[in-house]
Design goal:
This protein has about 325 residues and is of the alpha+beta class. Helix content is about 20%, strand content about 20%.
Length: about 325
């Protein structure tokens, strides 16, 4: 006689269930940081490609013969400022909101002095306007090329977005004290600028510390408040940084009254005299903020030039360093020079 099979099975005990739940919790706890890191890496890698495309586009626009112009009109009301500048290319403007704006050299760029007729912002020749004293002219330093001051306006194409968690800092060619120091890092806004020959133009002196007059002809002037004129006196403050989040509409510290522009898709930049950098570092906002909260780094608003080495080391370890060829604009990743 066959016996009926016993279909009853013992279930998991409470202890076994607790052990399984604990293992799952541990795995999840270990996985979340890894997933977050992978997402950050993916975001920064995508942004690296976007930066490369934007820089290539800026250089292509700069060298396009259709974008060039020759100035022939003369402002006879003021002989010292009557010689206008010539076309000098396109700049990629990096903003605090993770945008790249392509801006073309504008042939009618002017600024006004109280009680004076409009002055050309851009000019060429030995006489240049100093930004710290608009009432007097100073001689251009000897041995330097005779470039004009340059006013830039948007090309009229959509801004290029890097992503909400993507941060960018600019790499200048300036050393803090001597040749063994790292390059000076700058928070946005700054520019990567190509002239009409496709050659990268960079700012030649440190504009954040007291010293000789800055080489104004190597700065990009951008109408950051959209008022139709260029403000020569708006420049980076004496320390390395300000609070870029106040000028970032994606930030919780965005100051609408301070940063709002004239259009719904535009916002004011903190200054209009922009350094032209030689490269950028792409990094994760979240990772940087975590390092600030852990006391490893100063916040941008508290950083000064003495914190530059600490930030440089963190950026090299956690971000992606992008340098660009001065002759071709080609992107070179993780270059130390």
């Amino acid at each position: 006689m066959l016996r009926k099979a016993d279909t009853t099975r013992a279930g998991f005990s409470l202890i076994e269930l607790l052990v399984v739940v604990s293992i799952i919790a541990i795995v999840l706890a270990l996985s979340f940081p890894m997933i977050g890191a992978m997402q950050r890496d993916t975001g920064t890698s995508s942004a690296v490609n976007t930066v490369g495309i934007a820089i290539s586009a800026a250089r292509r626009y700069a060298t396009d013969p259709k974008n060039t112009f020759a100035r022939t009109d003369i402002d006879s009301s003021n002989t010292e400022s009557s010689e206008p500048g010539l076309y000098s290319g396109v700049a990629a403007i990096f903003t605090p909101a993770g945008e790249i704006r392509l801006a073309k050299n504008y042939e009618s760029a002017r600024f006004d002095l109280p009680g004076s007729p409009p002055w050309y912002l851009e000019r060429h020749g030995p006489q240049l306007l100093p930004t710290n004293n608009l009432d007097a002219l100073h001689k251009q330093p000897p041995g330097l090329p005779q470039r004009e001051l340059n006013g830039f306006q948007d090309l009229g194409i959509d801004y290029i977005l890097l992503g909400s968690d993507v941060g960018v800092v600019g790499i200048t060619r300036n050393q803090i004290v001597n040749a063994n120091d790292p390059p000076l890092l700058l928070t946005p806004p700054f520019a990567i600028w190509f002239d009409q020959n496709g050659y990268m133009v960079v700012t030649g002196q440190d504009s954040t510390r007291p010293g000789p007059p800055d080489n104004d002809y190597q700065f990009v002037y951008y109408d950051g408040d959209y008022d139709g004129s260029y403000e020569c006196t708006l420049r980076r403050p004496g320390n390395l940084n300000y609070d870029p989040d106040e000028y970032n509409p994606n930030s919780g510290r965005y100051n609408r009254n301070l940063a709002w522009g004239t259009g719904a898709d535009k916002y004011k930049l903190p200054f209009e005299r922009l350094e032209a950098v030689i490269g950028v570092i792409v990094y994760s906002h979240d990772a940087f903020n975590n390092a600030v909260e852990d006391g490893l780094l100063p916040s941008w608003v508290d950083a000064d030039w003495q914190d530059n080495l600490k930030i440089w080391r963190w950026m090299k370890a956690n971000g992606q360093v992008l340098m660009f060829s001065r002759q071709t604009g080609m992107m070179m990743r993780n270059r130390d020079e």
